[in-house]
Amino acid sequence: MTEWEHVDRYLERLLVPPLDRFDATGLPPHEVTPLQGRLLELLARVVDARSILELGTLGGYSTIWLARGLREGGRLVTLEVSPEYARVAQQNIERAGFAEVADVRVGPALETLATLDGPFDLVFVDADKRSNPDYLGEAVRLSRPGTLIVADNVVRSGAVADQDADDPSVAGVQRFLELVAEHPRLDATAIQTVGSKGWDGFALALVS
Ligand code: DHB
Ligand code: MG
After folding, report:
1. By the 8 A CB rule, do 30 and 80 touch?
2. What local confidence, expressed as pLDDT, does residue 16 receive?
3. For the chain, which residues make up each domain, given as ranges?
4. CB of 51 closer than 6 angstroms to any ligand 1 atom
5. Ligand 1 centre and the CA of 153: distance in Å?
6. Ligand 1 centroid to 18 CA: how many Å?
7. Which pTM value belongs to this model?
8. Mean per-residue pLDDT for 133-145?
């Protein structure tokens, strides 16, 4: 176990209520960590979210954390391209008691996004990274002043700072961050993280 994992375990035990019966069978290991999931819940509570949009459901782990942070009576829409992952997510969401709250939509995110109306109070961008520039445009379109946009995986073991990167996922994250930086309605930061998923980071952008 790395020191980062060791510390994650310690902090998780102290601070993070476990999500019981979550099934990640057959999923790539890309879910947020428990500590990161808890951060998403707290961010949803800080913005007093009544409506949350998530791009990239995977098995629904972050979805459940976000749903926990949603206001009573709120709604959450989560977009997943894989029918298989969406089925696993639906089961996990039902088991966690959020079937009435979370709406899992299957299909390419950009197609589903075009059918949605905002505003959402919080948007979590965690789907395929190469489409992040397009996702940012849709996230802002579906926002109101005060919406918080959170993006996962903006550091990617440091690759984000490599100007010669030819990985389309890295290029997608770089372009996303440039667009955030130059957007007149966004104030943003990015925080590097280490932990049981290695070295990565979150970007946070507040819409004005
Ligand atoms: C990948 C995607 C993620 O959302 C993540 O958190 C980690 C890795 C990936 O596609 O490699
Ligand atoms: Mg991610």
Report:
1. no
2. 97
3. 3-16+32-207
4. no
5. 7
6. 22
7. 0.98
8. 98
